[in-house]
Write a structure and sequence with these properties.
Low-confidence stretches: none
CATH superfamily of the largest domain: HUPs
Oligomer: single chain
CATH topology of the largest domain: Rossmann fold
Strand order of the largest sheet: 6-9-8-7
Radius of gyration: 22 Å
Largest sheet: 4 strands, antiparallel
Number of domains: 2
Number of strands: 9
Number of helices: 11
CATH architecture of the largest domain: 3-Layer(aba) Sandwich
Helix content: 40-55%
CATH class of the largest domain: Alpha Beta
Distance between the termini: 42 Å
Amino acid sequence: MGVSGGADSVALLRLVMQLRPDVGVHVVHLNHELRGEESEGDARFVEELARKHALPVTMARLSEIEPKLAKRPANKSAMYRAARFLLFKKVAAENGLHGVLLAHHADDQAETVLHRLLRGSGAAGLVGMAGESRQGMLTVFRPLLGHGREEIRKYLKSIGQDWREDSSNLSGKYLRSRLRGVLNEAPQVSVGLIEMAEGMRGMRTWVSENAPQLRERFAAVELEGWPSVLAMEAGRRWLIGRGAPAGELRPKVLERFVEFVTDAGLGTRQEFPGKIVVRRRKGWVEAI
């Protein structure tokens, strides 16, 4: 499991040890090397915690993992995430592990949904984080999504377990931190965001089950007459299948794709995220 030293990951580790002694735990920590001695202190804390409980532990630095990324995302947050998952996959493969435990909780979920809402995400993004998902061959579990930040800290205090605080969480420099401040001032908004995410998840499931399936080369008429939400989902899946980055396929992009496919008056070629050029010719659509 990934352990940062923060209250949420430390609490998850202690809960797994307490409630699921049958689960074999391997602690993994990636030092992002962003906060000087504070980052070094986090790493020491995690390693000492793992050693104290006789748990196997893998420690790594971002400078060691980043060069191994096959594709380095331009966005720093995305790059950090890619590096973490590359490390998780490596440790899982080397140790015969089945998945990774992450400590995202209810407040993280609300922040994620608000962040995506502000970025203009559609239903696919507004479902928030899943309790269980797949990253390639790795299964990702988030068992704390139903529990809030304060509840987690109360648990740690009750068992006398300390943790590390990340000073960057208090910095107004980062959008995530600013959103956290807004939600701390209005906890009812967090509740509403989480409820919206749950509703969107149900809608997302229905859309996924009912959207048409498009072949690599398909007839333009195959998208005609479908409700826009289903046509856009079909386009989203088709574009991802051609190599488009899922995170860049926002509603306006998908609306443009559907309009291009179904309206012969919009030209014969258009470019979409991932530098994918789509051609519409004699009623047929394909990537070139």
